[in-house]
From TrEMBL:
Its main location: nucleus. It is found in: Nucleus. One of its GO terms (molecular function) is DNA-binding transcription factor activity. InterPro entries: Homeodomain-like_sf, LUX/BOA-like, Myb_dom, Myb_dom_plants, SANT/Myb. This is HTH myb-type domain-containing protein. It holds the Pfam family Myb_DNA-binding. Residues 1-32, 54-105 are annotated as: Disordered. Residues 81-92 have a biased composition (Low complexity). NCBIfam families: myb_SHAQKYF (TIGR01557). GO terms for cellular component: nucleus. Residues 111-162 form the HTH myb-type domain. Keywords: Nucleus, Transcription, Transcription regulation. The keyword Transcription regulation applies.
DNA sequence: ACTCCAATAT
DNA sequence: AATATTGGAG
C-alpha cells in the first residue's frame, strides 16, 4: 500500500527512419510488417534489462538508420522470477493444445505513435463500418496484438473523435467546451496522427461530395509467409542480422511461442526494436515499434 | 461469437 | 496517465 513512484518517465524511443510510405500498403501487399510483441515469458526473462536508459531525445538523432543497436542486453541474468508459479505447465490437458501463452498476462501494450498510426491507417482503409476490433487487428497484422488491445484502443479513440468533433462549430465558445472530459489537447497519442476526414463526419449530409474512399476488398487473409514472421522458430535459418538480438536463449527451450526481432531482410527501411521500459512501480511494459518519424 | 460502452481496476 | 478488465446490452 505504498506508492511512491515518481519519475515516471515515458521512455519512448523513436528513431527516425523512413517507415512505411505513409499509408498502409494496399491490402494486397500488406503483410510484411510485423512487429514483435514480446511474450510474457521473454519479458520476464529480460525484465531487468539493467540499463535501458534510452531516453527519448526531443529530436530523433540521425535519420540514419544505420545499425543502431542498442546496447546488447546482457540478458544473462535469466533470473527466473517465480519458479513455483504456474508458469509453464507444458503438460497441459489433452484438450486444447493451445499455445502456452494463455493464462499468462502479457505486459501492457504501449501504443507508440507509430503503432497508433498503423491503427488509424487500418481503420481508414477499412472504412468506419468494417472497422471493428477484430478486423482492425487483422489488418494491422501486428504480431502479438490482441483483439482486446485494439478494442480498448478503439474505444478510446472514438471518444477522442467525438471530442474533437464537438469541439468546434458553434459550441466552441459556449458551454460546448464542457464536453466533460479534461481537454488535454495533449491527447498526445491521438493527436499524433492526422485524423482522416471521413472519421469526423461519417457522411456529408447533403451537397458536397467527398472522396468515396474506395473500400478495398474486405478482408484478405494472407497467410503466405506470415508465419515466417509472426512466429519464428527457435532455430534461425538466417544468420543474425546486425539488428537482431540473440536473446531468445530462454524462449528457445520453451514450447510454444517465441519472439524475436526479425528484421525484414530486404528492407533497410524497417528496423524493429524491442524496448522495454519500466513504468511506475516496476511494472514492465513493452514498447514495440518500428522505426519511424512522426 | 462479437461489438459497444461505461465503469472500474491496475 | 495509459491500458486492461469487466459487465450489461444489442
Amino acid at each position: 500500500m505504498k506508492e511512491s513512484d515518481d519519475s515516471n518517465n515515458n521512455n519512448n524511443i523513436r528513431w527516425s527512419s523512413k517507415w512505411e510510405e505513409d499509408e498502409l500498403p494496399s491490402p494486397d501487399e500488406l503483410m510484411p510488417l510485423s512487429q514483435s510483441l514480446i511474450t510474457p515469458d521473454l519479458a520476464l526473462a529480460f525484465d531487468i534489462s539493467t540499463n535501458l536508459t534510452l531516453q527519448t531525445p526531443p529530436l530523433p538523432p540521425p535519420p540514419r538508420p544505420s545499425v543502431h543497436h542498442l546496447s546488447q542486453p546482457p540478458l544473462p541474468p535469466l533470473i527466473d522470477p517465480q519458479p513455483s508459479d504456474f508458469a509453464d505447465s507444458s503438460g497441459e490437458l489433452g484438450s486444447g493444445g493451445d499455445e502456452p501463452a494463455r493464462t499468462l498476462k502479457r505486459p501492457r501494450l504501449v501504443w507508440t505513435p507509430q503503432l497508433h498510426k498503423r491503427f488509424v491507417d487500418a481503420v481508414a482503409h477499412l472504412g468506419i463500418k468494417n472497422a471493428v476490433p477484430k478486423t482492425i487487428m487483422q489488418l494491422m497484422s501486428v504480431d502479438g496484438l490482441t483483439r482486446e488491445n485494439v478494442a480498448s484502443h478503439l474505444q478510446k479513440y472514438r471518444l477522442y473523435l467525438k471530442r474533437v468533433q464537438g469541439l468546434s462549430t458553434g459550441g466552441c465558445g459556449a458551454n460546448g467546451g464542457g464536453a466533460g472530459a479534461g481537454d488535454p489537447v495533449t491527447d498526445h497519442l491521438f493527436a499524433s496522427s492526422p485524423v482522416p476526414p471521413h472519421f469526423l463526419h461519417p457522411v456529408r449530409p447533403s451537397s458536397d461530395h467527398y472522396l468515396p474512399f474506395v473500400p478495398v476488398a474486405a478482408l484478405q487473409q494472407h497467410h503466405q509467409m506470415a508465419a515466417a514472421h509472426t512466429r519464428l522458430q527457435p532455430p534461425f535459418q538466417r544468420p543474425l542480422a546486425q539488428f537482431e538480438h540473440p536473446f531468445l536463449s530462454r524462449a528457445g527451450q520453451q514450447p510454444g511461442y517465441s519472439v524475436g526481432a526479425l528484421v525484414h531482410s530486404q528492407a533497410q527501411l524497417y528496423a524493429e526494436d524491442l524496448n522495454m521500459a519500466h513504468a511506475n512501480g516496476g511494472r514492465k511494459v513493452l514498447t514495440l515499434f518500428p522505426s519511424g518519424d512522426d
